[in-house]
Amino acid sequence: MAFVKILKNTAYFKRFQVARRRRRQGKTDFHARRKMVRQDKNKFNNRKYRLCVRFTNKRCICQVMYATLKGDIVVSAASSHELANFGIPMGYKNYAAAYATGLLCARRALQKFGLDEKFKGKEEIDGEEYHVEDEENEQRPFKCILDVGLRRTVVGHRMWGALKGAVDGGLHVPHSAKNFPGFKAAEEKGAESEYDAEAHKDRIFGNHVKEYMEMLQEEDPTKYEAHFSKFIAAGIDAEKMEEMYTEAHEKIREDPNGEAAEKKDITHTRKGNNVTGSDGTEHIRSMKLTLKQRRVKVAAKIAAAQAKMMADED
């Protein structure tokens, strides 16, 4: 019989250290986070800002935040669902929406610190590489570090759209163009790489969606109506795509807070569990019972159960 060495013995389990909760859940890469949050000793407790870009199944979320001992503090945030206030009624998770969300988050952050007038960013969107630090300003730009979370940093990913939007919005985020759409690495050693800014501009204005819409409209009208039903309902076709995003960028720069929702002057009156609104709507909302009422309710249930048992025995 072969000798089997027991590796996971009592001594092993005594020294076993459980991973952090968010690491076990697969939500946080603490190795990367530690590098982004770490500071020099002579800069302890200074705010080190991060531009966090996250994607869900329905939207893109951008946040400017900094870490403290109590937890992360969010300075400004923007979600692609808010683009409805700026004239983009659908398509909240593509590259063009990510760019607009990054631009919105950047303008809100600068407005909060009173830097929106000093740092306008790149107002002409042409896809060219841009760094706000290269411009001559008396004050240093607002610097952030890109935080991509658990996403793989592949060329052409939507996260680079949010980064480009934040940079064009006036934030200083250290980056290079090697991950942007339109970048082509050198094939041979010693050769220069190429960056096609026009290809990146097409992505920013949703031209890839426009081409797909035109293709479906010609080849499969039924599929086109199903896939782009919200575009059709809003009266937006392939020709109006670029105009829609251009107007949205201008509105974001004018006022990143958007139009405030109108307040509805509706009053509610309650009678027992029935709630009636001044607009004629009725709802049922159960009231919380007191201790005395709960005891009476339980006693009634017990009495009913006992009566049923007595009836069964008879």
From TrEMBL:
Record keyword Ribonucleoprotein present: yes
Signal peptide: none
Location (main, coarse): cytoplasm
Residue spans crossing the bilayer: none
Gene Ontology BP, a term: translation
Superkingdom classification of source: Eukaryota
CDD domains: Ribosomal_L18_L5e
Cellular location(s): Cytoplasm
InterPro entries: Rbsml_uL18_euk_arch, Ribosomal_L18, Ribosomal_uL18_C_euk
GO CC term, one of those recorded: cytosolic large ribosomal subunit
Cytoplasm in keyword set: yes
All residue ranges annotated as the Large ribosomal subunit protein uL18 C-terminal eukaryotes domain in the record: 241-307
Entry coiled-coil feature ranges: none
Annotated segments matching region Disordered: 250-284
Basic and acidic residues composition bias: residue spans: 250-268
GO molecular function terms listed in the Swiss-Prot or TrEMBL record: 5S rRNA binding; structural constituent of ribosome
UniProt keyword list: Cytoplasm, Ribonucleoprotein, Ribosomal protein
Similarity field: Belongs to the universal ribosomal protein uL18 family.
Descriptive protein name: Large ribosomal subunit protein uL18 C-terminal eukaryotes domain-containing protein
Source organism of this protein record: Polarella glacialis
Phylogenetic classification of the source organism: Eukaryota, Sar, Alveolata, Dinophyceae, Suessiales
